[in-house]
Amino acid sequence: MSQDNMIKMECTECKRVNYFSHKNKKTLKTRLELKKHCNSCKKHTLHKETK
Fold this sequence. Notes:
The chain is 0% helix and 51% strand. With 51 residues, the chain is mostly beta strands. The protein has one domain: Rubrerythrin, domain 2 (Single Sheet), CATH 2.20.28.120.
């Protein structure tokens, strides 16, 4: 897995980077948004892709 496909997922409420993932940047041009569990907020929140 190459490093240029790696993305960081940041919580929208507490602004902490909790998850790392990868995506195909050629097919997905928009930023990824997923509902994931945040350990600092202790609940499921929306996580957005950061740079």
